[in-house]
Design a protein that fits this description.
Layout (H helix, E strand, L loop, with lengths): L16 E6 L3 H17 L7 E6 L5 H10 L5 E9 L5 H20 L3 E8 L2 H7 L7 H19 L5 H8 L5
Parallel strand pairs: 1-2, 1-3, 3-4
Length: about 170
């Protein structure tokens, strides 16, 4: 017996995306944003189909992502931040709460909210994950976002994503 396999296509055409990005460590997050935009554009995203929301730091990502998801304007949200371990436990709190909150935003809204918050022990590791040696985690999150919106569209019987959003958020015009 061969099971039926469901997976999303890598086609951004017709979808809308939001990027919620922390300004803290901007020299890193700006590279992650560039990577996400590059990925979305390579997959056919319309130029006007992405919006970027800037927040002070990674701890502010979850609530902003939740508000953006609840707007009903976007098919997926990509959260971008960079948290580098320091000499205090602050890293653990920020990284952990940001990660939990991003997941909660997705669970509460049914909208894919991707976590592209890099968490590293050193600045060198962060630079590498922002496009130097280890790929660009913003680009990878964009690929995952596109795959998920296509998968979910297929799971809804191939209906237009805007129809699903209208049912989930009837109060949004």
């Amino acid at each position: 017996m061969q099971p039926k396999i469901h997976q999303g296509m890598l086609n951004a055409l017709g979808f809308r995306f939001a990027i919620v990005a922390a300004r803290w460590n901007d020299f890193l997050t700006s590279k992650l944003i560039e990577g996400a935009l590059d990925g979305l554009q390579r997959l056919g995203l319309d130029d006007d189909a992405v919006e970027i929301f800037k927040v002070p730091g990674s701890i502010e990502l979850p609530l902003t992502a939740l508000k953006v998801a609840k707007s009903g304007k976007f098919d997926a949200i990509i959260c971008i931040g960079a948290v580098i371990r320091g000499e205090t436990p602050h890293f653990d709190y920020v990284a952990g709460e940001a990660s939990k909150g991003i997941a909660q935003a997705s669970f509460q809204t049914g909208i894919p909210v991707l976590n592209a918050v890099i968490t590293t022990d050193t600045l060198e590791q962060a630079i590498n994950r922002s496009g130097v040696k280890s790929g660009n985690k913003g680009f990878e999150a964009a690929m995952s976002a596109v795959e998920l919106v296509n998968l979910y569209k297929g799971m809804d019987g191939g209906k237009d994503a805007s129809d699903a959003k209208k049912k989930a958020f009837p109060h949004v015009v």
